[in-house]
Amino acid sequence: MGRIIAGKTSEITPGKMIKVSIDGKDILIANINEKYCAIDDSCTHSGSSLSEGKLDGCTITCGWHAAEFDCKTGKLSKFPMKIKDLSSYNVTVESNSVFVEM
Ligand code: FES
Questions:
Q1: CATH number of the domain residue 95 falls in
Q2: Of 10, 18, 80, 98, which one has the greatest count of Cβ atoms within 10 A?
Q3: 72-85 burial string, b = 16+ CB within 10 Å, else e?
Q4: What is the pTM assigned to this prediction?
């Protein structure tokens, strides 16, 4: 699919998460201390939108049942049962625009 613009850096300020829809797929973009990361937005437990959860450092906590994922890798970091990791994507910044590579 290639490199797709996800937004402007001014829209994704430090500590903020946004959801963008790229080719029908919801992707979460987060800004962690000026470093951007991108993972699937849909929780692998029951499909909650993770961008409506909580971001603390690199950890995203799902707003429904509190599964925790590492925002940089998409890996599950805490939940009482095994659920799938999220896919993660490379992010680049160029001319104040944030691009996701898919
Ligand atoms: S939907 Fe995310 S933990 Fe249940």
A1: 2.102.10.10
A2: 98
A3: eebebeebeeebee
A4: 0.94
Which residue from 39, 40, 42, 46 has its CB within 8 A of the most atoms of ligand 1, so it is best to mutate? Answer: 46
CA distances from 46 to 4, 15, 34 (A): 27, 25, 30
- Total structural domains within the chain: 1
Ligand 1: atom nearest CA of 53 is 2
Domain hosting 74: range is: 3-101
Assess whether the C-beta atom of 48 lies below 6 angstroms from ligand 1: yes
- Residue 72 in tokens: 């940089």
Q: What is the tens place of the pLDDT at every residue in 17-49?
A: 999 999 899 999 999 999 999 999 999 999 999
Task: Number of helices (H) and strands (E) in the chain: give both, helices first.
Answer: 0, 10
